[in-house]
């Protein structure tokens, strides 16, 4: 069975591709340049089951046409993970909103044009960002479920990069469900979306030369490198381990009951303080070097504000999620190993 993975170079996508290869799938991965494609093949040790296609710009509404013109007949599964997840942007439309939305539209339209009768399942990587309008995030009575939607609009979201990113994921996921409604007689595939909260955990291929990691992993990287007197940014929200996110991307298309579902990937709440507590307890080499904060007060922070109920998803997926300590420990061990500090 052949699976197409867009944005195959990403933090999450690399784990997805690895799992697909291990389970015997053939993978076609897209990346933005020849160089990135070559690097990808090299990382997977030139495994003959993976090939690549260059898709330079997902903002282009015909971005995926060539890939599907060439491979549409053989691709049965499409996993659309490519989307910008960064906050250092200049132009909200050009850098976040348009690639997110047009990327989703272009992959679905390419299927309609060249794989309408062969693509059976599509999984779009959405986000908790599509479930919540962060401007109302700290309401104690708010419980997010698989039915929740961020109500941001194109006009009112453009206040700061975080709000725009959340809106970009919302509009992209909406575009996918709208596409299904509008084209249900013209394509045979079933859609599922996966909505992870903050994703942490080890990189599939640690790169010692890489000083800055992907946006979510960089949160832990910053703490590991913070001086003990630094005033850390206080962050809290849900966490999920990248290895579970990869598993869920596969189950989303493998299980019949996951078809047409939004899968909320959430392993529990965290606050920056929980990271500090775990790292200070488990890594003696960092003790005294990084901040301690106010040990034990994480629970106080995470008991306030919105909560997430994803019982429905957990039942559909049927496997237990990795806990916070294991997720943080494995992330930090890898960072330290990369720096040869252990
Ligand atoms: P990465 O930044 O590691 O991966 C993003 C991928 O999308 C990369 O392959 C990147 O290519 C590609 N991409 C981004 N912008 C463009 C563009 N304009 N044109 C073409 N390709 C582009 O992040 P993650 O792995 O974390 O993110 C993967 C998906 O998961 C995204 O859809 C993200 O929104 C979603 N997500 C992530 C969460 C997290 O905490 N990490 C939480 C919830 C959802 P390149 O490598 O060339 O930059």
SSE topology sketch:
Elements: E1 2-6, H1 11-22, E2 26-31, H2 34-43, E3 50-54, H3 65-71, E4 75-80, H4 92-114, E5 121-125, E6 143-144, H5 161-183, E7 190-196, E8 198-200, H6 215-224, E9 236-241, H7 242-254, E10 262-265, E11 269-271, H8 272-282, H9 298-302, E12 307-308, H10 311-317, H11 324-338
Parallel strand pairs: 1-2, 1-4, 2-3, 4-5, 5-7, 6-12, 7-10, 8-9
Antiparallel strand pairs: 9-11
Bound molecules: NADPH dihydro-nicotinamide-adenine-dinucleotide phosphate.
NADPH dihydro-nicotinamide-adenine-dinucleotide phosphate binds at residues 7, 9-13, 32, 36, 57-58, 81-85, 99, 125, 127, 169, 196, 198-199, 214, 216.
Task: Walk me through what this model shows.
The protein has 342 residues and is of the alpha/beta class. Helix content is 40%, strand content 16%. It has a domain at 2-201 and 238-267 and 309-317: NAD(P)-binding Rossmann-like Domain (Rossmann fold, 3-Layer(aba) Sandwich). Bound molecules: NADPH dihydro-nicotinamide-adenine-dinucleotide phosphate (NDP).
Concise structural overview:
The chain is 40% helix and 16% strand. The protein is built from eleven helices and twelve strands.
Determine and state the CATH class of the domain at 2-201 and 238-267 and 309-317: Alpha Beta
SSE order, one letter for each helix or strand: EHEHEHEHEEHEEHEHEEHHEHH
How much of the sequence is in beta strands? 15-25%
Helix content range of the residues, please? 25-40%
What's the gyration radius in Å? 20 Å
CATH superfamily of the domain at 2-201 and 238-267 and 309-317: NAD(P)-binding Rossmann-like Domain
How many DSSP helices?
11
- The coarse overall form would be globular
CATH topology of the domain at 2-201 and 238-267 and 309-317: Rossmann fold
